[in-house]
Structure to design on (82 residues):
């Protein structure tokens, strides 16, 4: 499947991305890098830097997507957990 993972550069999301890639899925990550790290994203996944709360780059991200997984957290909750 082609899977979009929001927050895929974060703690939980990046582990999910690794597992999805290992299972043979084509993964796109949408992450604004507010608490996540570019280096945490599997090199086998495509990273789109942006927020799910803004319009771009959504159209490009959605192209061909058959499934989604969200691992994002509101900024306040993200920073509270660190
Ligand atoms: N870490 C844990 O042990 C744990 C346990 C249970 C539940 N959770 C929940 O799981 C969720 C993810 O936790 P985490 O530890 O992976 O947090 P994290 O901060 O490491 O990951 C969240 C990711 O979402 C990204 N993000 C935030 N807002 C975004 C937006 N608007 N658009 C795109 N990307 C955005 C951040 O840059 C980050 O990469 C949270 O809701 C958290 O409360 C975490």
């Amino acid at each position: 499947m082609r899977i979009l993972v929001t927050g895929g550069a974060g703690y939980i999301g990046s582990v999910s991305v690794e597992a999805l890639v290992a299972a043979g899925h084509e993964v796109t990550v949408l992450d604004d890098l507010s608490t996540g790290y570019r280096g945490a994203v599997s090199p086998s996944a495509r990273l789109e830097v942006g927020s799910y709360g803004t319009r771009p780059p959504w159209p490009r991200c959605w192209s061909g997507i058959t499934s989604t997984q969200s691992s994002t957290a509101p900024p306040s909750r993200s920073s509270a957990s660190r």
User: Anything to note?
Assistant: The pocket of nicotinamide-adenine-dinucleotide is lined by residues 6-7, 9-13, 30-36, 51-53, 71-73, 77-78, 81 (CB under 6 Å). The radius of gyration is 12 Å. Residues 8 and 47 are 8 Å apart (CA to CA). Residues 11-22 form the longest helix (12 residues).
